[in-house]
Amino acid sequence: MRGQSADKAAQGSARFLRDWPAAAQAIARSMVAQPETCTALPAAESLIRANDPAVMAAFWDSLTRADLRAAIARLPVPLLAIHGARSRIYPPQTADWLAATAPQGRALVLPGCGHSPNLEDPQAVADALSAFIRA
Questions:
Q1: DSSP secondary structure letter of residue 108
Q2: What tens digit of pLDDT does each residue of 66-121 get?
Q3: How much is the CA Rg of the chain, to the nearest whole Å?
Q4: How far is CA 118 from CA 19, 37, 41, 67, 89, in A?
């Protein structure tokens, strides 16, 4: 993840426990390229906020410690890495790496989207998934 360190990950978990409503809002806003115009953002924030902060802190700790990169090369199924070019979480090269590393990998980078293209351009994601499944 961009700019992530063990210290930053721990700070995130502490923030979840200290002020979950603000953390949930920050998470939701970081998922999209243009929070001001994303119509799906309020629903996404509501779903995030509905989670238990202690569970989310434990999940975040687990997520930031996990390194499953070696498993990608052993995937027994096709992989489509759909990535938003404007993601604040992962650089666009992440999708390329996944596609190149997976035995049956492909990448699609959606130019105007952030970390969650399914929220910002659901039709493009649905079309890409449909084409991938049919291939």
A1: E
A2: 899 999 999 999 999 999 999 999 988 999 999 999 999 999 999 999 999 999 99
A3: 16
A4: 27, 15, 11, 24, 15
Q: What is the pTM of this model?
A: 0.86
CA angle at 116 for the pair 115 and 119, rounded to the nearest 5° = 150
- Copy the structure tokens of residue 101: 């590393």
Asked if residue 51 lies in contact with residue 60, where contact means CB atoms within 8 angstroms, the answer is no
Q: Where are the domains of the chain?
A: 6-65, 69-134
In sequence order, which ranges of the chain are alpha helices (DSSP H)? 6-18, 20-30, 41-49, 53-65, 69-72, 93-101, 117-120, 122-134
Distance in angstroms (rounded) separating the CA atoms of residues 128 and 130: 5
Nearest to residue 108, comparing CAs of 86, 90, 87, 125? 125
